[in-house]
Structure formats: C-alpha cells, structure tokens
Amino acid sequence: MEFFLPVTAEDEYEQRYAELARFAGASVPVPGARLWAVQWESDGEVWEATVGELLVRVTPLPRVQDGAAVMAIFPGDPYLIVTSAQPLTSLRSGWHNPISAGVPPQVRKTVPFDIP
Which of 32, 46, 57, 72 is a plausible cystine mate for 64, CB 3.0–4.6 Å? Predict the structure, then answer.
C-alpha cells in the first residue's frame, strides 16, 4: 500500500502527517518506517488499526469495530495511533486519542507502507 492520509489531498500529505505527529507527541518517521497497520494487545483483547479504516477488535470474537477511523500510526516507545475521534473532531471513541499501543510484545504485528 502506498503512503496516504485519509481525507487529505495528496499534495498536503507531508504537512498533515507532521501536524498529526505533533498532536501525538511523536517524531515524523522517514518514509521507510511509516506504518500502514498495527496490531496490539490491551486488557486481554487484540485490536487492529489500519490507516483509513475503523479500529477493530479482532479477539475475542466476535469482531467489534470502534467508531473512530485511523488517521496515522507512529512507531516508537510507545507506538501511537491517531484517530478521527475527540479532540480532533466531535466523534466519540472507546479510546483516548492518540492511542498508546505500547511496545513489543504488546505490539504484536506491524505492516509498513510500501517504500516509494
């Protein structure tokens, strides 16, 4: 998957990505380190965040979606996930924004964007 940001014009990706990193208190990763998806464990549940999609609890079954869409994922200590929820919008979520997904082994899987 090529790097993108939801609801953002392509010529504004870098500026908006930097803004989201500032909001999260994260560094802007180089293109080869940018994440498209991450899976992490929280309180015995496994959640998955994919840029442009809703947050999903994958275990235990049944799968459950949170109402927040993933805007960006930042690797680090901890991994941080910015969503479309409050305080960026009026949307409510079961998660604080940004989400602190922890570090491995709590972070179980990462999927980078393709390198251009």
Answer: 57
What's the rounded Cα separation, in Å, for the pair 97 and 92?
10
Q: How many CA atoms lie within 13 A of 39 on its CB side?
A: 9
* pLDDT exceeds cutoff 90 at 35: yes
Dig out the tokens for 21 from the structure.
């990193």
Q: Whole-prediction pTM value?
A: 0.95
Domain extents in the chain: 10-112
Burial of 63: CB neighbours in 10 Å, binned 0-12, 13-18, 19+: exposed
Q: Largest alpha-carbon pair distance within the chain?
A: 40
3-state helix, strand, coil in the chain (%, to 5): 15, 40, 45
72 forms bridges with which residues in the sheet? 82
Tokens 């180089």 label which residue? 30
Q: What is the pLDDT of residues 62-108, one digit of tens each?
A: 999 999 999 999 999 999 999 999 999 999 999 999 999 999 999 99
CB atoms within 10 A of CB 19: 16
